[in-house]
Task: structure prediction
Amino acid sequence: MLTDTLPVTACAELHRILHGPCPPESLSRPRTGTGTGPSGGAQLLRDLGLMGQALPAPEKIFEDPARLAAVHAWAAVTDPPLCLAALVHHTLCLGSMTQLGPDPAYLAERMAALTAGRAKGVYLITEAGQANSHLATRTRATCDLATGEFVLDTPDAEAAKFGSAGTLDVPQTAVVLARLFTDGTDRGVFGFVVDLTDRTGPLPGVELSSPIGLGALPLDYVLVRFRRLRVPAAHWLADGAVIGADGAFHDPAGSTERRLQRTLRVGQGLWALMPAVAAATARQSAVQAVNYARQRRTQSRLAPGAPLLSYRTQQRAVLGALADAFALTCAAHGARALWTKSLAAPSGGDDTDAMGFTPWTAVNRPLAAYKAASVRLATEVSAECQRRCGFSGHLDVNRLAGYHGFHHAFDAAGGDSQLILYDIGRSLVEESADTPAPATGAARPLATSPSWWPEIARTHRAGLAAHLADRLRVLKHGSPFDAWNPLLEDAGLLGELYADGLMAEDVVHVLGEVRDKSAHTVLSALATLHGAMAARRWSASLLAHETLRPADVQALTDVIDRLCDELRPHLPLLTEAFVHGDGATDAPLAAADYNAALRATLTWTRGAIT
Result:
């Protein structure tokens, strides 16, 4: 049984692991309202400017990944739509200029305006008229050798770009992905810096549709078209490519496929930040659900007046949410370390994947997997916490609906998670084609240690990959589509298992660095609970492929209940450590007296006394 309190050293270690080197209280605090919508552009710019004050200079924005993650995690907890706008603004728009642009002096004015919140950054990649448009970009940028400019055109209605570019009352600067043509030859997809709007609306050559509503994540979505828009030569994000005065073209990427991978590498920053954002919102969701379950008294005939938390069903749900939030926190460490390493060689190396169903895994397989796994688990956590808080979980003031909408929408945004998982599964199957399947059905120890789930995940991944490789060998007599079409569902499961396995390994790695014994005991219980909950989610597949026996799965409930008993005495400490700074605790569900806090947000209209 865990003790009721922890030493100061243990608390400090918990805080370091959960919040990293940039605790929330050290950051500039953006407004906690929603800065989006047709009339919210000025407020959104103020919020982005406040966030910019907490970040490095624009040309150095990727030099402090921990601070970048902390700033966006804070925004996600306080205002999810602001977080999405900021992720696009900083990682994709500013990031493209920083990583792919020419001499920074050429774009210094626009980068300074974005950092200071004088303009909103937009990233236009998706073309609304066809699936997998990233692989077949049709927006054209034709080089005009006479002027050195590029002429940007949308060839037809299906090639219109979809993005959050409808904030018409403020300046907006976009990075637009377009297919470059010189002398009639396709040179691949590059980014171009384009001014879309000023304070009066669209600029010449830019056409914006009426707003496209998206209630789960309320931003100013529109379709964007270009009509012979001239782009200065300095606004071409050439990434080392050059066009000579005679029209001779040279690109160090070497091919149009490789060019697309290099142009899209800025996505690594977005993927690397998503686990930190997901962890922050998941921790806040779990804290609120635990707080509600401790306070809420039930009038059930089973136990009138008992708090919700006395019920095993509620314990498994809300303590499981705490455990999953801890696992996401560990994944944030792993993703940030991987991204930091990749920044040392931003062009990518020879170990990148070949282009498959999508470009994302070819850019960076593990970071793409982190994005997919983190948004999906955070979606599950927020949804479960909403469900366990009754009608209170759906009130806007408690933000759980906003967290769920943010991550649910992000499953498709920033690189479609399902396509990423299909592609990872495909790669793993092809890599395992000559590897014998591991033995299955062997007796395994009970799930009572943090290392159990990572071992199970590794074994199951190898077995599933070998199984699919056997099926692929039978089907390869047809076309690639005929071979893969019946396997895609299972390939997606394999990709998801790979992504979940990264998180499981991160949990063990983080635990290995914990030196304080008391903190290690608490976190080990959380880690083990996450593994047991993950195994239950995977139980159908684990049983189908005989990675676990029925008795192993049946025993998980008892393991989970014992871990809940271990963790319950520590809940006051854990909820205090997990909460994301004082700026997030104005949600009534996070208050010491939830009912009083909710009443304090209300005003009353009284009828006349008769």
Summary: The two ends are 60 Å apart (CA to CA). Residues 326 and 397 are 24 Å apart (CA to CA). Confidence is low (pLDDT under 50) at residues 30-39. The first helix runs from residue 8 to 19.
